[in-house]
Protein 1
Amino acid sequence: MTEMPLTGRARPDRAPHTLAEWKALGGYEAVERGLRELGPERVLDMVDDAALNGRGGAGFPAARKWRFMPKPGAAPGDGPSYFIVNGDEMEPGAFKDRILLEALPHQLIEGAILAAYATHCSEIVVLIRDAYRDAIRNVSRAIAEAEEAGYLGRNILGTGRDLKMWVHPSAGRYIVGEETALIEALEGKRAVPRKRPPFPAQSGLWGRPTTVNNVETVSCVGPIVANGPQWFQSLSRTAEGGTKVFAVSGRVHRPQVIEAPMGTTAGELIERAGGVSGNGRLRCFQPGGGASGFLEPDALDLPLDFGHVARAGSMFGTGTMIVLDETACPLGVIARHMAFYGRESCGWCTPCRDGLPWVAKIMADLEAGQARMEDLDVLQMTVEVAGPRGRSFCDLMGGAMSPLGTGLARFRDLFEAHVREGCCPIARDHGRAAA
Amino acid sequence: MSLSSELITAIEEARDHHGGPRAAMVESLRLIQMEHGWVCDAHLEEAAATLGVTTAEMEDVATFFSLIFRQPVGEKLILLCDGASCWLNGGEDVRDRVMERLGIGFGQTTPDGKYTLINICCVGGCDHAPAAVIGRDRKLVGPLSPDDLDALFGEDAR
Ligand SMILES: Cc1cc2nc3c(=O)[nH]c(=O)nc-3n(C[C@H](O)[C@H](O)[C@H](O)COP(=O)(O)O)c2cc1C
Ligand code: SF4
Ligand code: FES
């Protein structure tokens, strides 16, 4: 096995493998082994021992989530349990699930079969965002092939279990990626998040036990079962298992997806992405997508995993970095993020529905040099009221406050300069964002 | 104009396939859009009747999801990314040039009905920033340059 177990088998043009081609690369051996030899408990233990943390943003241990699912007969009432693969990927700066969906659909299906098996689910739904049409097509085709081959459908591999799998193409709105909103969307409702508890494992899709995992998380399961948890652990440089499908974009010369050991540093990733563009000197970066707090050059040697990045005051999130050189204004990035989160608010709770557009307006005013010093207090107050784990109904608002809050803390001078000088001093000196 | 019998069959299949009528609403709207570009009142009502849901239920989801269009869109759809990574790579210069060329802003359609321009969040193409997705099959294009918009308007752009 290469050191890129997730993306190593992708073709350069991202053309997906047929089932036969995938099997020739060792595909479906993990499924055969898991279902014929290991059994659900052992598969779950392997994922546990591998220390696989969810790759969708929060880093919750996959096996721990799976253990909340009821055993056969233990769920109240009749009906299936559901395993949902979250392929909504709309976080600013995130483009890592795309390659896994487009180029490696059979890897995803293998992982989903094993995960559904370990969590006693008989139906799998893959939700994919509207813009990923190749992904929708490739995953749908691969599912049909896997059904034909008996990996999905009735009595899979003679285990006596039935397993259905289908793709649900979505139709826009970032909030659909939040797992309870996603469940609402699948039920044919407006995608407004649900109150928790009950958690999806107790009452999810159509009131049935449900587990939601990210595309990358699910894609890790096949390789773990094929090669063992120790192997997966040993891929990582830290206590969190595996490689990570990182992505680097913004002000770098060669923005790209990079699969590298968990714990790889930001400095190494930026270098592999061709180095900082613009004036070549790093001002700051967001380590894990739009909702992660800013870090500065002193964090270049920080090993990137959920624990290390959280301790450094940010969030590992999706592991997809946005890089700013010295000629890029962090307020400009924050302004784009606030406009985005404000627009994507589902409208359910007041701090988010009303607060985010207000914040976005102030950011636009700052950029145009029309804000007042008092406006900065409004921004600060909003961060305090609605920041992470604050008074909003779901994490969309809290997430949005991370770049704003860390921006205010780290670049206070720059905020004030925008007010004092009546313009963006960086755009004045270097031109507006044009790279 | 009513829905074609092929579309009705496809909607019925979606209904019977997974999860029942409500779960098939978004898919039905998407199917209508693939063929007609947008969803008019008559089509929405017909799809609702085919699924056996109310028009209000159908409208409820149709108005929530941003990529279900309840107004006519142009022959060619341009969904231009306004995310941060695109901004960092000159996305707004591209935006300005596209608007100048079409004479319209975001959310508008050219008077000849040819182009509709919409801003969209990060399209997962930050490695091609500044990026856009175009057409009914959402082809990813980029990196775009204000001086060369062939990817949006050239021969190959669908
Ligand atoms: C506003 C919002 C958007 C989200 N979008 C996504 C998404 O697009 N993809 C994803 O996998 N998780 C997304 N999440 C996280 C999910 O709620 C959920 O935690 C995740 O899918 C669980 O998978 P994991 O445990 O494998 O990480 C989002 C969360 C929030 C609050
Ligand atoms: S924070 Fe509130 S309004 Fe914002 S997306 Fe979540 S539930 Fe909706
Ligand atoms: S920010 Fe434009 S494609 Fe990601």
Protein 2
Amino acid sequence: MGAWDDFRKAFGGFFVTARQMVRTVRGDGLVTTSYPHEKRVKPQRFHGRHVLNRYPDGMEKCIGCELCAGVCPARCIYVRGADNPAEARVSPGERYGFVYEINMLRCIFCGLCVEACPTEAITMTQLFEFSVTNRDDAIYTKTELLIEADGTPNHPQPDGPLIDLNELRLADGWMRATAPSGRAAYEGVVAWTPSAGVGIREAEAGQGGSALAATDPGEADGAPPDDAGVDELIEQLHAIDAAAGEPADDAEEDAP
Amino acid sequence: MTGWETFLTAAIKVVIAFGFLLTVTILLVWFERKVVADMQNRLGPVRAGPYGLLQTVADGMKLLFKESVTPRKVEFSLYIAAPVAALLPALLIFLVIPVGKPFFIGDRQIDLSGTDLNIGVLYVLALSSLAVYAVVLAGWSSGSKYPLLGAVRASAQMISYEAAMGLALVPVILYSGSASLSSIVDAQIATRSVGPFDLPVWNIVLVPSFLIFFIAGVAETNRAPFDLVEAESEIVGGYHTEYSGFRFALFFLAEYINIFNISALTTVLFLGGWHGPTIGWGPLPWILPLVYFFAKTVVLVFVFVWIRASLPRMRYDQLMQFGWKRLIPLTLLWITLSTIGIGVQRFGVPWG
């Protein structure tokens, strides 16, 4: 079959292209999509634009600790904390993020700020469409970053076919993975706090079920954090740490 | 026919042909992009118009409105003349191609070609040789090294493949007994009964001529795998590196009109032109030949695109070897054999 092999060597490429064309025409094996009308499903831990979250009662989660600014390898975050005014508290802690700015042109989207944040105030989302025509506009302040008390995210560009603002409601899985229950020993336990608008976030596949799954996001809206639930959670965390033979460092401070 | 009527007929034909070629270019670019996209599992243009049909119009508008940058070192008169010199032969070649059956107004016959030259094949070859001037002038007058390299490649490549192309047509002219394109089409009307079917005897029975002409045609139009002239991975844009805006659009237009011309010529010379099974009803006997002609041409254009999507670019030495050491000797051998064959068919064996 020497002649046939020679023929295959010389003209085999034509059959490859013809076969792929038949595949594509049948709607099979397309590798591109009609973006932005048809967006791909992004990976769960996609590192998109940041948002600053609030508790379901409208309190800001940021406590102005500047850990995010400290850990940022690109030095793109600027935070200035301030004491909470006694008559109108902004955050449940002592201080709150008075100024919070991220230079999106410098940000490398490594997610270390999310990992460093002790209160899950800053999370990354699935939205990556935020091109600007002016360098100043690339510096996002609290106006753009902070979600509204009802959970509506803010963005400089309006919702449209290109910019799907719903993607700003999807926190990336990294936040959940770096929360205390992200450790293997905490399989099946959720230890992140609920946020305004979305309530308690679902666990990623592999993180098991959710201890606070009973808390309906709709009920959680506007209601203060469920103290009973938190106590129950802390007990669970202690039990798990004891079983794993580790000190329960995350829960120790809260335990009496 | 009075002189006035002749002039009017010619003018109408030229205007129609010009508009037609521009439309065809627009569709051709779209067709090529879609087919290549399909072969690469992509979507291709989908934005402008239904199925992205208007994408080329959008690109053309963009080019028209862009600034035509003129680099400082150009030879300005030649630099300006080159795009025109590229487009003119492309437009002129189409004028001798019969695209359909002649029709009659009163007793005046109107050919569906710009003009019917009795040296049509020579005219086509001569004009496609002229096309190389545009490339060389563009490359030289740009005053830049990449266009010059592209032009040097172009002159060598186009002259080499010109020879094979011209020689491949000798058997066709001998077989059809004419160098006029409409006579060549008419010579392919004969049918031969094979079993229950009446199969047309097209010139494609001269298989080597067909293959050599088509391969040389791909090389003449500087298409992949013979696109060394504008090899973007090696010499930027080749001869049109320094061209932008409308001047670049003219080169682009010429390239795609040339693709259509070569496909149409191959149809005329080898695939029976506008011949095909006709049904006699109303205007159908006049419309169907047009449909046949364009269907055959589109199939060949598809082959052009298919070749582009399948084959990698040849190396320069491979190109020259293939042209001079394979194609031209093969063509000469084929001319000898086919001439003997046609002679025997026509006059009988010399000892008989």
Protein 3
Amino acid sequence: MKKLQLLLVFGAMLVVLLAPAQAQDPVTITYWTDPALAQPVSLPQFTQLAEFETWQAEQFMEMHPHVTVEVRGLDWPDLATVVPTALAAGDPPDILKDYLGRTSGYGVEGVTVDLFQHLPQEDLDDLLPGLVQLYTIDGALHAMPTYFWNHAMIVNKALFDQAGLGDMIPVDDRDWTLDEFYAAATAIKEAGIGVDFPYTLQVASEQGDYDFHAFIWGAGGEIWNPDCTTGFDNPKTLAGLEFVNKLYQEGLINSDATTAAYADQTNNLFTGKSAIMGGGMGVLNNTIGNAITNGEVTVEMDPVIVTYPHAEGEVSGLGVGPSGFAVFDKGRSDYEMEWVIEFLLFLNSSESQVTYTQNNSQFPARASAGVPLAEDENYALTLSLIQARGTENLGLACPGFYEVRISQPPHWQAMFLGQETPEQALEALNSEAEFILDM
Amino acid sequence: MLKRFSKRVWDGRWGYVFIAPAMIPFAIFTAYPLVQGLLLSFYKAGVNRDKWKYIGLKNYTNLLTRDPVFPTAIKNTFLFVLGVVPAAMIICLFVAVLIYPLSQRKQTFFRAAFYMPVVSAGVVLAMVWVYIYSQEYGLLNYLFETLGLLELLNEGEKIGWLAQTNTALLSLAIVVLSWSLGQPLILFLAGLGAIPEPLYDAAKIDGASGWQAFWKITLPLLRPTMLFVLVVLTIAVFQVFVVVQLMTLGGPANATQTIVYRIWVTGIVGAKFGYGSAMAVILLSIVSLVALVQFKLLDRQLT
């Protein structure tokens, strides 16, 4: 009997001893990230892709020694190819940071975890409701939003002032009509101060599309309707397109827009060949800020943010696009998933969001992150413009978004080159979009 | 039956052992993906494997009847092949005949010069060519301006070589051509070296001119090399991709779309793996058919 008692006590001790060890079983998490924070402004010690994220992972691993995080950085073009291939091969990462236009596709395909089932309610409540709505696909939260960029128009007012045309820029209310924009663009071109192409644009790839779409939105048209059908058959879309085409044909847009890369586009602004381009806080503080620091800007620069021009009676909202963390369904055990979510919450904590947004001039997705760049007057201005004018529907969460997106540039190019009229371009796009969405 | 087969395998066991190092990687990395690709072409296949669905020939019917870009890609690919392959063959043959009589040292210089693009990084070469073709700062426009050709061709306006639909494909074809000369040249030089010298001596004694010797001796005896070069070059040019990806992204206005670039855009970027596989199967069929015709035509002349 005594022996049995001893055995029971020993057994109980063993269970007690083993229980914590079970909870601390090693876990390996793979985390793939976009290059948005490859060169954080306020953390100059990080200069390489994924260096900052690796440092973050090391912090996490120090706190939780049984967790190993493998970080991989992907450039923007790689995100569109490496991730789908990895998914099809059955070897995706646990966590992916990318923008909504791509993660939504994974959500539609049903390969992401429904984060409504995994995130604590207090974290869900902390996310901006509009973003939660955007990220909800078929009732599931397909990714956790972290921050969003904005898209407006940036005008180098110094060049307008130099030409005596400063009063043509709407610095008071940041609002102008298509006619006022056209008049200002024509005037600065004719002023003879070297502004050959007032508006700099690229339609060689889909990367420049918001700079193009914004005129369509300004005319009251749509690329995507709220029900995720396309708006290529909308007469106002045609009106917007005709306006952009007019700008190009009259030499108000750079003639190499059909083949220009983003670097060519910004170079036009930095060298004074152009005075206006699309962009938001990121372009203002990071792209232009870095170019000034690096001595790439050869003209006087006084960039101001205004909304895109609009037709009479229409309102130009701002383009807004969030990025987030998607968790892929890899059949993880509850224990492993617990740590994946723990790492996700670490990556997307309020403090992390402040760090991200301070370094890429974007806007946090958590209410508790506050206004990280409150002292920046353009940041406050942008927020007020979003509140006053609203946001445009980019269709980022629509099925087929990315394919419809990449089908557009060839038709914008054909229109600029005079091979398609705006009507023909839209007709062709309409039938292509039908084909894509039907497949 | 099985016994006979087993015996045959056993008798040839050493042969199988010797070819195994080549056949095993071939089976894993070429044959298996090929079969998988063929099977996949009958599926609607996206990133979620659980949702893959058998759809029979629908990918093929969509490609051939509804896809608005694929026919353009086929046309452009054929234009590339029809432009680049004959040009590369003629240039390489001409250069090979020209440099063959030179000293070994001079020959080596030319071999190296022509082969250099083959071993150079595609990205670097593409960047150089983008600079050459640049509308604003490009070397080509500068040259044309200096020679007064811009005035003649475009009323003095600089030409956007990659920006215009009527020049973009030709511009890319020239780049592909420049990359395609190295290997055929080496092969033609080797082929020339294999022609017995006494044949030329005999022709000389018979009073044949250099031109006659070329037509009656060099060309017929180079045919096996020409067949090989023709087939290999045709297959390579059918797969043109890098220049398109790096220089034009298929633009402007789809003027430089090619089949392999469409496979990339639709199959990989668009994650329509089944649809992309159907494109790849069509490409494979076209290339196989063309190679077969080439073999039939030239092989007949060889025998």
